[in-house]
Design brief:
This protein is mainly α. It contains 9 helices and 2 strands. Strands 1-2 form a two-stranded parallel ribbon. It is extended and about 60 Å long.
């Protein structure tokens, strides 16, 4: 990517990811004097108020799932009660073991496990999508090696696959292949770049005009394209 193209992407990224840059101070080191708690909370509430319209109407797929303000209030109470709990120390917080086990059991019962299902169905609670995918891929890799003698595993993933599959490929030595049929260092980046090369008719990474046209056509954000072309 040429310097002018990178500058363009960086400019748009800054505007998209840091819209508060001009209105709120950016701290680059610990201040000599701490700020009053009330002042910090006021700033956080102000920033949150500006962000809420982006997701409260339910049009932010994959970013947040909520059941209304009353349920959010309930979750906030739950977070506050357990803010100091550390599941790494179950001897101090045995309640964390209870919650973890019950979540796994309830989920397992919906997926073929439980008393009337497959007894071996098990699991663990993760912090999000990426962490859920990574141990699953390691488990598949280890099972393939133990049960089928596969020492050079591969996975075929679609263009729409979560970025964590590419991370799993690198972390656990699983070769990733895109659904379009060709190997790629990064399925997302490889497919996006190959597509752009076909459109342009010449080799090279997407130019600024191509990025703009594809963003308009797909309604993707520049953030997504930055991830696609710089992974």
């Amino acid at each position: 990517m040429e310097a002018s193209d990178l500058d363009f992407v960086v400019d748009v990224l800054e505007a998209e990811l840091r819209p508060d840059r001009d209105s709120h101070h950016t701290y680059r080191r610990l201040p000599a004097t701490g700020r009053p708690r009330a002042e910090i909370l006021a700033e956080m509430r102000e920033l949150a108020a500006g962000e809420e319209p982006k997701w409260q109407d339910g049009f932010a797929s994959g970013a947040v799932y909520h059941g209304g303000s009353e349920h959010i209030g309930f979750l906030n109470d739950v977070y506050a009660i357990n803010s100091q709990a550390n599941p790494l120390h179950p001897e101090l917080w045995p309640s964390a073991v209870k919650y973890d086990a019950e979540i796994v059991a309830m989920t397992g019962s919906m997926l073929g496990g439980g008393e009337d299902g497959v007894a071996s169905v098990c699991g663990t609670v993760s912090s999000g999508g990426t962490e859920s995918i990574l141990p699953a891929m390691r488990t598949y890799r280890d099972r393939a090696a133990a049960e089928r003698g596969i020492s050079d595993p591969e996975m075929i993933v679609p263009l729409s696959a979560h970025a964590a599959f590419d991370k799993a490929s690198q972390y656990f030595g699983i070769r990733g292949r895109c659904g379009h049929g060709g190997p790629s260092k990064n399925c997302w980046a490889g497919t996006a770049i190959c597509s752009s090369r076909r459109d342009a008719g010449t080799p090279g990474t997407p130019r600024r005009s191509q990025i703009r046209s594809k963003l308009r056509a797909s309604s993707q954000s520049v953030t997504t394209w930055f991830a696609l072309t710089h992974s």
